[in-house]
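The protein record reproduced below.
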Amino acid sequence: MDKIFTAILVSFTICVILAGPILKALKKWKARQTILHYVEAHQKKTGTPTMGGIIFILGISITSLLLFGYNSSLAGITIAAMIAYAILGFLDDFIKIKFKQNEGLKPYQKVIGQVGIAAIIGFFAYNSSYVGSSIVIPFLNTELDLLWVAIPFIVFIFLAVTNSVNLTDGLDGLAGGVSLIYFVGFTFILYFFMTDQINLGIGQALIEEYSNLLIVCGASIGSLLAYLIFNSHPASVFMGDTGSLALGGLVACIGILTRLSLFIPIMGLAFVASSISVTLQVLYYKKTKKRIFKMAPLHHHFEKIGMNETKIVAIYMIITAILVVATVLITIIV
């Protein structure tokens, strides 16, 4: 547990130190956000530096590499997955910035990249003695063996989570704040899960693997805390697809490699709400030419009906915190 707190402190410090130079570099490179014309309430944010996710990506990566102990293959794969998705997001952001518009990579190009990264990790996980094809069923103290379905399931988890986090990144501090609270909760879940596994007699190697993953969780908490200093309303930087895809990849990968991926939609309900609202909106509009929401994702609908941006973010974070506390308590009790 001491290493988790150390990771939080170290990553927070690194991000605070790096944030200034990174913001200056983004401004120098004219890495500015272009706001969609139909998001009227955000037009004043046009020109705000983007790709700020580099701040927490570096914080998480550097801290993890500094604090990793022995047997860190799962943690290493997690960092690699985060960076791979960050590169995909960077390409998307780069195209937007270069051509000064809000459409980067084509949707099919994004999907190909996301599926490719996910498939590689899926094959690794399936053939790993630390992961395999089983997943933990929340609150039931049991596991389900997915057999060969594990690989397509992993690909689905990556696609769902990365795109959901990406869609949630629409208000100042929203994706970062929700992710911060999620990681706090997941750290507790993983810690208690590891303790249970120790009681069941798992090997020292797997204990060390989980311990290093907990360091990644701690580094994520500290890095996001620091990032929110600059991203909370009014934001001086946006994470961009560089940050949101990296963050989604990180959430998905830790869940998958610990076999705790089914906890993601429970504690990350805010992410689910974003993706489901967009899906429903698109399907309903194609069928009826009418809209369910004034605008999707859901947080923009709330803006359209007159809710203040900071209030929406606060509500999302409070709901996430309630779900996290409830999940952790139920997990401990059962």
Summary: The chain has one domain: 2-266.
